[in-house]
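SEVERITY: medium
COMPONENT: batch folding queue
REPORTER: lab tech (J.R.)

DESCRIPTION
The queue accepted two submissions in a row. Attaching both inputs and their returned structure tokens so the on-call engineer can compare them side by side.

ATTACHMENT 1
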Amino acid sequence: MHKRARSVSMAVLPLTLIIGLGAGLPGIARAEVCVGDDAGHELCLEAPAKRIVALSPGVTELLFAAGAGERVVGAVSFSDYPVAAQALPRVGSYDRLDLEALLALEPDLVVAWQGGNPREQVERLSRLGLPVYFSDVEDFAGVAGTLERFGTLAGTPEVGATTAASLREEVATLRERYANAAPVPVFYQVWEQPLMTINGEHWISRSLELCGGVNLFADESTLAPRIGVESVLARDPEAIITGGMGKPDSTWLEAWRDFPQLTAVQRDNLFFVDPDLVQRATPRLVEGTRQLCQRLEVARGRR
């Protein structure tokens, strides 16, 4: 049974705004909106949110995609897409929030990253009476559902629904196209020092699977496990993919040429993808998945 957590936005609004909304006056209808979040809570606002603070770059991007961009008044560092997000006031980083700066923005909704924000700081926001939505997107279905819920919370349901429908259609097209693609064993490199990858629960792994890729570290217990070079050599990927530091001439990829016994090196299947397109679970993940699929098609052609 999911815990029911009703958050009332009016508790944190300035008095003048409350009066302007007709709070407490008979005969004034309120358009209450309720959605379920990814923590299993029900979040209810007395009216669509007008001052939203986003606590991860991905959340910021999702809010804009759902048509709520004009209602976002604050974001964490590295919230750089779309361009308009770059001008938003900052409230710290996703892993260390600046609560003073956040509270000064007087938000009527905070969207937290369930798997990344400091739990104690987010819980403090809830105790202060701020409505908090917990976001934890894991796959394309989660992206689409989040777009719809964000649209509802921000009073832009049509935009959220339209964007979600378009995403579902594009994903279905990709899934159909690569449904019978020959499997390609893949190592996806998230980081170099320490060497890190993804397990099968990560959305990048699910995108690879859609393309016919086989994540060689899918059985790891943690979402982004640390591994050793020896583990990569033992599993011998046919393709190695990374976003590196965001540059196509990734030194991370070139470093693998020191191991000529790897099938990926022998066939020159060392591929770069734009990390912003695959390492955030947002609508741009569709384009990132296309890039992954294209790289794996190249690998198949080199057999």
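ATTACHMENT 2
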Amino acid sequence: MSSILTCVGFGNGAIDLGGLLICQIKNLTEQSSLPDGFFVLGNYSQSNTNFPSGILFAGKDVTNDPSRVILKSPIDYILVTSPANDQEGGAYIWQPLPPENYTAIGNVATGSSDKPPLDDIRCVLSDFVEIIQEGGNISPHIPTGTFLARGNESTISSFMYLKNVAGNISSMPNISQLDDLIKKYSPVIYFHPDEEFFPSPVSFFFENGGLLYTKGQESNPVPIDPTGSNLPQGGSDDELYWLDMPIDDAARGKVKTGSLETAGAYIHAKPTLGATCTDLAIWIFYPYNGPARAKVEFFNINFRHIGQHVGDWEHVTLRISNLNGELESVYFAQHAKGVWLNANEIEYQSGTKPVVYSSYHGHAAYPFQGINLIGNGNIGIRNDAAKGDRFMDTGVNYSIVSADYLSPPIVEPTWLNYTRKWGPTITSDFADDLSKFTKFLPGKLKRKFMDMFNKLPKEVMGQEGPTGPKWKASWDGDENV
């Protein structure tokens, strides 16, 4: 790493938080790898069974203001935990004691009972620190890669993050850099060998008979303009309007199948983690979500109606470091929730493109092939992921539909600001669909299955069209895990 870092521009190695310059450390074990004037804020920690996959930030005070020093050494250390009976090779964990008005971001680990040198780390002026309770929204703030430990079986319920006090977004990628990132890291989505319902462009749905319904005028639906220009704008999901398939059976069948050959990805770029990273949410539109399947021990159930709905929006999110332009992690959205995996934990194609498996009928995103059950034990809704012959490289045909931080900002398509549902509420009877299959189950298994089924979130079982991407909680906040 160069000893001279700039703090302006994407991929330039550092970002200025308002007098506190931070950079990412590559060598997590050698203090000598620090650029000139930088100090770590604590040590890094993870399981010793995995390859190092996290990040560690170091900071430098660039204010040159003696009346407002941003980084100071701790005044002492307290031993938090030590190896039993001072076992050789164990770790001693130390909590730094910060000066008044400063915060210790992380702990320090040593291999002996000797206190670490006070000059090993720095505490941070508390103005630059945000304390977040476990489960809180961390997206505006910066995790430093340090760790906290507590002794005497006490628990940790809050964590320290850095704040981008200056609101500096100069490290965010420009439009040209966004294109480069998308082409380099665009996921390749593989579909199940038996999949029947594929993605399409939004315009395919509109141009092939998609209809706009108005409450109270259900007998007189209106064709949707190819650009969505006649979709209602503003308001909320008040059930006054909804979209649906064409009425004609042949046209309906065509739209259900989708158009994989012309399908594209719709990309939302936004700053996250205090603008140290860019999230690229890659949204895919499926005109139709097929009926669900279930597994009850050794029984497999193919439902006829449960789970089906018109209009299916799915996404994968790439988290890219603004300091070095590297992919850090990938979020795989799976109905109501999802999972983040580090970049070194996933499968790739062509070297840099994450592989995603779209589940059969439900189109949830999975990092690996297999039967993924939503439920308890061997009882649940199946999300089968397998590598068929058909796939979609999301970097071949894409459009950036929103990036508010750009100046001028991206002009959003009209359909993105349609706030209502992309499909009707289907009123088929759950009980009828269930009874045809559960009547063959032994009593104990039937009770277990129904208990699991009744606890499933509505997103899993579908039967009503979703709202569009912009109205998901993750659009402006964290992904749900």
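NOTES FROM REPORTER
Residues 14-162 form one domain.
No errors were logged for either attachment.
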